[in-house]
Amino acid sequence: MSFFRDLSIKRKMTWIIMLTTCIALSLACVAFVAYELFTFRGNLVSEMSMLAGVVGKNCMSALEFEQPDNAENNTLPGLQNDKRVTAACIYKDGRVWAKYPADAPAPNFPAEIPGVGHRFGDSLELFQPIYDRDNHKQIGTIFIRSSLDQIYTRLWQYVGIVAVVLGASLVAALLVSAGLQRVITKPVLELSSTARAVSEKKDYSVRAEKLGNDEVGALIDSFNEMLVQIQKRDIELQEARVTAEKANQAKSNFLSFMSHELRTPLTAIIGFSEMLVADVEAEGKKEWSEDLRRVHDSGRYLLELINDILDISKIEAGKMEVHVETFDVGVLVRDLKGVLRPLVERKKNQLVIECAENLGDMQADRIKVRQCLLNLLSNASKFTEAGTITLTASREARNGADWLVFRIRDTGIGMTPEQLGKLFRAFSQADDSTSRKYGGTGLGLALTKKFCQMMGGDIRVTSEPGKGSVFSIELPAICAKPASAPAVPSPSTTTFKARSGSDCILIIDDDPAVHDLLAAALGPEGYTLKFARNGAEGLRLARELRPAIITLDVIMPEMDGWVVLALLKDDPELAAIPVIMLSVRSDQDFGFAMGVADYLQKPIDRDRLVGVLKKYHRQKPASHVLVVEDDPQAREFICRMLRESQCTVAEADNGLTALESIGQQTPSLILLDLKMPVMDGFELIAELHQREDWRKIPVVVVSGKEITAEDRRRLEGHVQAILQKGAFSREELIREVLQTVRQLLGEQKSA
Q: Are residues 721 and 647 in the same domain?
């Protein structure tokens, strides 16, 4: 049946017609042959009975007068006229009295008379009594054996006739079915072809052709009506998808805009509150300082909330990136204790860290791993009071690979199975009562799960009400490792004689030709040079070597210069290292971008800003700084901090005003917001690079705007534009690099 089910409907119809015809004809022929066979046997018995009667009467006298020879020689030989008779005999007193043929041996005849009647076997055997003349007394029994060859011959004739009729009927049925099945199968095949075309091409505008008003026609009408409904729904879905994409784009634009608009006032809130706290504490007004600290803490909390929302938005838009680097897991875990101490002590909890000394290294996004652990530990501390929070880190082997397992166990309030089902959803908590009592936005766990999945791992949780919870983070020890760079001979193995231990320069660039060029330029100056071919290797060497200066290519595969710069500035131990941004084209024509010397994100950390000032102006305590910021409050806050650092300050609310201010007095440093009216920060950087004397002014970007791929392309395109204008030749580039390196190293030594 499986074979039949897989046939096309056309072949099924043909097989059905042929099989039906064949079965009907076969049954008819069998019935006909059976009827003829039974009729022939009946006729044979009747004829043999008549013949036996005639022979019996002719042998009556011989039986009465005991003359067997007369019967054998005169009467029985008459049977030879009937070719069907093969043997015959007359029984008298239970024994063979006369026989035909006369010379036939006795075993050819039944030894006993079974009774009057007939029987069929290989032949017909007939037994019939012989009576006297008055038909009152049986004087003998006649036996006749008749051959069945005639019936077999006729039977084979019938079989031949039946075969011919059946074959002719099947041919006729095949010809008729070929025409009739088209009437049924054509509309069905048309419907099937239309359905297949709709399924493959997703074109719901096609319609099946209706060929009749039968049940198949009604089915085609229903199918076409269904296509009409699907087409209408598809159009609605397409319109909804376009609307959703526009809404998502609007949401992304809104979040990007709001990140800037929210971070700008937060700069004033956090900054002025810090300054006021310092002032009132100096005056001994403790009650005022507590209120101001609440304002400061609320601003910080709002900033964390904004960052979490932006991270969720980035993940949903597929813009969140994983930056793989190698780090010591044990160091990362143990450093968390100091960070969490205030939060743990506030709830009178105890933090226990169980971490083996030889936990080893991990290749992952260090910032995201740290954030995941901080989220879970903060959560555990929030829902635990006067209890114990335990962080366990272990290394496990699974399927030939190493995995890092972090377990955070607390003795807090725990969760029910219903509450567990709501975890890891953005803006969702276990229930409303938990949210009212403990606060929070429900973003931390959602971000933690998404970060874990981005790094190839996952997070699991078990909990019991009143007994606490256990969160387990499982991450591969090596996740999303970038392909290693090809082994190209370069000066990375060469170390020149250094002037001092602080003269190490780290060059991060994926082009070996740049390594050769900078080695030839800086080597004779006596600097110690180290080289990295990609961002991950550059970050590792920066942590190991603590170089005096880093030169960083903007355009690199896997991790571009802007990402590396962000990671460098995020690390407190590396943030103070001066970074020179370079961009080198593959044809070895060079452009030089000294427009961005550093990047500060709003709200501005006061200590970070002071650190930047010291980094660039240690030898000039009264430097002249230009603040380019369109928000008056943020601009006032930055200016106050700068004046407290003994700097002279000029203000500008957009790029055009800044250019006028620079024309009047060249600043030694520019603090620049990227998003401004009239002329934004990108356009101002481009204008600065048009003049030789302005090109060397360090620019520190101060912005709440997220640096997007489009922003990077604008800055990188600016570098390419300088190359096209021929602003720098190869020799000029080397001169600019040497001048910048000497200046930075000279400032560090003089400090």
A: no
Q: How far apart are CA 246 and CA 740, in angstroms?
A: 46
Task: Give the structural domain span for 93.
Answer: 6-155
Domain check: are 83 and 144 in the same one?
A: yes
Q: Which residues pair with 581 in a beta bridge?
A: 552
Query: pLDDT tens-digit profile of 419-478?
Result: 877 777 655 555 555 544 444 555 778 888 888 888 889 999 998 888 889 999 999 988
Helix or strand (DSSP H, E) at 581: strand 579-584
Structure tokens at 541: 């060497």
Q: What is d(CA 672, CA 692) in angstroms, rounded to the nearest whole number?
A: 19
Q: Are 635 and 651 in contact (CB under 8 A)?
A: yes
| Structural domain count, the chain | 4
Chain centroid offset of residue 443 CA: 24
Side-chain half-sphere CA neighbours of 537 within 13 A:
18
| Rounded-to-integer distance, Cα 250 and Cα 606, Å | 33
471 and 340 in a common domain: yes
CA distance readout (Å), 224 to 9, 188, 620 = 21, 13, 83
Using DSSP bridges, classify how beta strands 528-532 and 504-508 pair: parallel, antiparallel or unpaired.
Answer: parallel
Q: Please tell me the distance from the alpha carbon of residue 139 to that of residue 70, in angstroms, as a whole number.
A: 16
Q: Are residues 690 and 549 in the same domain?
A: no
What's the CATH code of the domain at 672? Answer: 3.40.50.2300
What are the tens digits of pLDDT across the range 307-353? Answer: 777 776 666 666 677 778 888 888 888 888 777 887 788 888 888 98
Please tell me the pTM assigned to this model. 0.42
Q: What is the mean pLDDT of the chain?
A: 76
Return the pLDDT at 588.
Answer: 28
